[in-house]
Each structure stands twice: as structure tokens, then as C-alpha cells.
Design a protein that fits this description.
Layout: H1 11-22, H2 28-41, H3 46-53, H4 57-76, H5 90-102, H6 113-120, H7 124-134, H8 152-164, E1 170-186, E2 205-218, E3 224-229, H9 234-246, E4 253-258, H10 267-275, E5 279-283, H11 294-306, H12 314-330, H13 341-360
Helix pairs in contact: 1-2, 2-3, 2-4, 3-4, 6-7
């Protein structure tokens, strides 16, 4: 005749099991196991425990034995189960991952689930699961550009230094032009947004001319200085510099962060700057528009006012832009730069090392 395993608890074990059996956030399966062991320690039979806890006698016997063998750790975690043999072998998974990351199909630039499934001899759903498990997304790509400016580090440190530690008795402004802004009018009236349906607009449009927005954002308060002009030559840039000169306190120096556009370096611009000593120009490295925060504001006005706008004339477009700037200046908010120059340079070095390795293969 089989006899149940005798359970004797230490004070610590009884305290732990009692906590588990009463815990509101304890998993229900662990609550049951703790109650089984506590009842067994009180000398109750498996049959009595099963009836009391509304479970089966084999369940009571199983957890009594597991506690006797592994104590609290024996009932806290489930024993591993063998499970069924996977239909897709590890070799197949490795092959799919390798082909995805190191090969290309003969007639396409990247793999699709169907083309990969056909090449390997598995189902489309299998490819989807393997890609998802390994974080592979062949249909996506990201653009990048590493600056080849020989003075990249010097310029980066200069600009980031202005962001993180601006000079006293001076204003730091990020300035640039947003060129060729089109006054687009849709060929047909779009439908407004409706419940269950987004707003609509025709894919084609009528061009009504272009304008160029000259803008500068002051880094401390976020105030905008802006002006639209039909061209973006050095003459227009000088006009904009004069506007900045007129709309900022005369007693403060002005540190302008600009890109390497030829207009900004024109001899006549240089001559004008020599006559206006409070202007100090800081050039960003080539191919580094992300370093000029006015580009961040250009994205805002594009997303919020220009891209989905309808303009029947250039004048209407200019009015919309100036109204947006006016509204921004009523409650300006600055962009806060937090990345340190050392952190950026470390990322650039890592990217260059990866590129060098790929080019050497």
C-alpha cells in the first residue's frame, strides 16, 4: 500500500508558504501548490486535501512529492516540458537568416516573404515568424550620411559648445533658407475628415509659383525671425542679415549657426560681416544639416502648415508662412540640445569603423 510522503516544514518554509497561499498578486497555480503543502504538513491525506481544495488526488500527490524533493523551489517553478519536435530545423532557420542578411535575390533588390519561402522551400508564414524572431525587416531601409569635412570635429565641437554653453551678453541663432516652397493648389476639392474615413485630397496639383523662406531661431527663447523672398542669392542673404540686425538688441553679440551654402560665404557677405562686428558666423560641417536646429523648425512648419495646405498664389503661401511665424512667436518654445560633442564623435567613429570594415571585404 502506497503511503504519502511526510512533509515537515521549517519556520521559514511555513512563513513563505503561508505568504504565497494568501498573496493577492501571487499566481493562482502557486497559491494552490502552497495550500497543498501546508495541508500535507498538517498531516492530512491526499484524498482529504483534494476534496478540500477542489482539485484532483494526483495533483496533490505530485506537488507533495516535488516539495519533498526540491522544497519551495520545487513548487515555485514548473518543470520543463519536452514539447513537440519543431517542424523547422535549426539549420533552416540559420539558412534563412544568412540569406536575408548576406544575399540578394537574382531579380530584386531585397527579399520578400514569398521569394524567400520559394528559395528555401518553406511557407511564407514560416519566413515571417523567423524574421520577426530575429528582428529582420528587409523591406525597410534607412538613409545615412557621414560627413567628409576635414574639419568635422572642430566645427562640431564649436557648434555643440554654443548649444550647451552659450556665451554671455550674446544671442545664439540658427539660420538657414528653406528654398523652393511651392504654392500648390489641388485640382479638385477634397473631402473633409469623417468618422471612419480620413480627409482626402487629390494626388495631382497645380503649381502657382515658389518662394524662399529665410529664417533664424533664437536658441534661448525660441523666437523666430523670418522673411520670404523670391530668390536666395547673396543679395537676399544680406537683406536677411540686416533684418536680424534690426530685430535683435544692439548691445548683444550675435552668433549665427549656418551651413556651408556658397551664398553664406560670398565675398560681399564677408565684406558686410567685417563692417558689422557683432556678427560671428559658425559653420556646421558639410553634410550635417541635423546639427542646425532651424532644420527642426522647418520640419514643423512643413508638417503643420505647408505640406497639406492649398495655396492659389505665392502671396497666399507667404501670408500663411508669416501667420505661422507670428503665432509661434506669441508663445515661443526653444529646442533644447542635450547631446555632448564626445557622445556624437564616439558614434561617428563607430560608424566609420563599420564602413571601413565593409569596404575592406
Amino acid at each position: 500500500m502506497k503511503t504519502a510522503t511526510i512533509i515537515v516544514l521549517s519556520d521559514d518554509e511555513r512563513k513563505t508558504l503561508t505568504t504565497w497561499s494568501r498573496g493577492r498578486s501571487t499566481p493562482a497555480r502557486l497559491v494552490l501548490r502552497a495550500k497543498i503543502v501546508l495541508a500535507a504538513a498538517d498531516g492530512k491525506t491526499n484524498e482529504a486535501i483534494a476534496a478540500e481544495l477542489h482539485t484532483s488526488k494526483p495533483t496533490v500527490g505530485r506537488w507533495r512529492k516535488r516539495f519533498a524533493a526540491g522544497r519551495t523551489a520545487g513548487i515555485e517553478k514548473d518543470a520543463p516540458r519536452p514539447g513537440r519536435t519543431p517542424a523547422i530545423t535549426a539549420e533552416t532557420v540559420t539558412r534563412i537568416v544568412r540569406k536575408t542578411t548576406q544575399e540578394k535575390p537574382e531579380t530584386a533588390t531585397h527579399w520578400s516573404t514569398r521569394s524567400m519561402a520559394k528559395a528555401v522551400g518553406v511557407s511564407k508564414a514560416t519566413v515571417q515568424r523567423i524574421w520577426a524572431a530575429h528582428g529582420l525587416k528587409p523591406h525597410l531601409t534607412r538613409t545615412f550620411k557621414l560627413s567628409n569635412d576635414p574639419h568635422f570635429e572642430e566645427k562640431l565641437v564649436d557648434v555643440v559648445g554654443l548649444y550647451l554653453d552659450p556665451p554671455e551678453h550674446a544671442l545664439v541663432l540658427c539660420a538657414d533658407e528653406k528654398t523652393s516652397i511651392q504654392a500648390l493648389d489641388r485640382t479638385q476639392q477634397g473631402l473633409p475628415i469623417h468618422r471612419g474615413r480620413p480627409g482626402t485630397m487629390t494626388h495631382d496639383y497645380k503649381r502657382n509659383g515658389t518662394t524662399t523662406l529665410f529664417a533664424a531661431i533664437e536658441m534661448t527663447e525660441g523666437r523666430l525671425i523670418g522673411r520670404c523672398m523670391s530668390k536666395h542669392r547673396h543679395q537676399e542673404w544680406i537683406k536677411f542679415l540686416k533684418q536680424i540686425d534690426a530685430e535683435t538688441p544692439a548691445e548683444l553679440d550675435l552668433h549665427l549657426i549656418v551651413d556651408n551654402y556658397a551664398t553664406h560665404k560670398h565675398p560681399k557677405v564677408q565684406s558686410w560681416l567685417k563692417r558689422h562686428k557683432r556678427f560671428h558666423i559658425h559653420f556646421t560641417p558639410t553634410s550635417s544639416p541635423w546639427l542646425n536646429l532651424i532644420e527642426r523648425w522647418f520640419r514643423e512648419i512643413t508638417d503643420n502648415r505647408i505640406r497639406r495646405g492649398t495655396f492659389r498664389s505665392v502671396g497666399q503661401l507667404i501670408q500663411a508662412i508669416m501667420d505661422y511665424i507670428k503665432q509661434h512667436n506669441q508663445s515661443p518654445k526653444p529646442f533644447v540640445w542635450t547631446a555632448k560633442a564626445e557622445e556624437i564623435l564616439a558614434k561617428v567613429r563607430r560608424a566609420r569603423n563599420v564602413l571601413d570594415k565593409l569596404q575592406s571585404v
